[in-house]
Amino acid sequence: MKDVNQKRLNQEKIVSHLNLNKNLRVNLEIFDQIDSTNSYLLKKEQSINTLNICVAEMQTKGKGRSGKIWESPKNSNIYLSIGTLLNKDISELDGFSILIALNICRALKNIYKIRAKVKWPNDLYLKGKKFGGILIETKVVNNKLALVIGIGLNVFMKSNEFIDQEWTSLHIENPLLKINRDLLISEIISEISKDLPIFLKKGFKFYKRDFEKLNILKNKKVIVSNYPSSNCIALDVNDDGSLNLLVDEIKRKVSSGEVSLKIQK
């Protein structure tokens, strides 16, 4: 009998497990190989009240934050992008990547009782190591906002010589757990679809308390790209999702587009 990780992603099973608002239309495409699930959806026409979902077994040009490559070996992980069209301004999406991280954490807890943490603003951690990341991309189309949510999760990957930081996978941390990628993808999409309209009405402030419970950076010494020679401590987040830092004893606020952070060892 094949292990779960050897099974190809199944469109019918993913769709059958979705729990979505009845007003939402869903278009799901699965690719054996693609350059980037995000790039594919950025080129695709998006519609209001429609989720265009792209999943791939492998990416040849997987995209990480700040132009980095997201390593995407075949049949090992989850490479998922969700696209839609919003009648909103990009300024109304402050803190949105944190919401997506919370959705993923909730999905993992719901199905597998896995308790992940979030590294501001868009990384997912297990036992102090990164296993997932989020890339939000947008473009303006006819005065509306085309939104693409990119999610990469290390599921069954056991080794990768090309990753230049400490990393882990769901399998490494839970080797006896039988993880079904179809089910996990469905649960993540369902969680996002449930919270998206709430976020658009109430903003990140509504989720701030939930994030602080999972904030792996809080009160930790960090290395900050903007302050490389300073002593920095990460504090809490603000209502707009920006992060408070203590920089050489002076409190400063930084937004996700301004800095990159590493936990100081």
Would you kindly provide a brief summary of this structure?
This protein has helices at 11-16, 37-43, 96-112, 170-173, 181-202, 208-214, and strands at 25-31, 50-56, 78-86, 117-119, 123-126, 129-141, 144-153, 221-224, 232-237, 243-247, 250-254, 261-263. It has 265 residues and is of the alpha+beta class.
Written account of the structure:
The chain has 265 residues and is of the alpha+beta class. Helices cover 24% and strands 29% of the residues. It folds into 2 domains: 4-211, BirA Bifunctional Protein, domain 2; 217-263. The protein has a 7-stranded mixed sheet with strand order 1-2-3-7-6-5-4, sandwiched between helices. A 5-stranded antiparallel sheet has the order 11-10-9-8-12, with no helix packed on it. Helix 3 (96-112) packs across helix 5 (181-202). The longest helix is centred in the last third of the chain and has 22 residues, at 181-202.
- Return the CATH architecture of the largest domain: 2-Layer Sandwich
Strand tally is 12
The main β sheet shows up as:
7 strands, mixed
Q: Kindly report how far apart the N and C termini lie.
A: 43 Å
**CATH fold node name of the largest domain:** BirA Bifunctional Protein, domain 2
* Residues in β-strands, percent: 25-35%
Tally of separate helices = 6
Q: Which descriptor suits the 3D outline?
A: globular
Report the structural category.
alpha+beta
Order of helices and strands: HEHEEHEEEEHHHEEEEE
- Point out poorly predicted stretches: 1-5
Proportion of residues in helical segments: 10-25%
**CATH class categorisation of the largest domain:** Alpha Beta
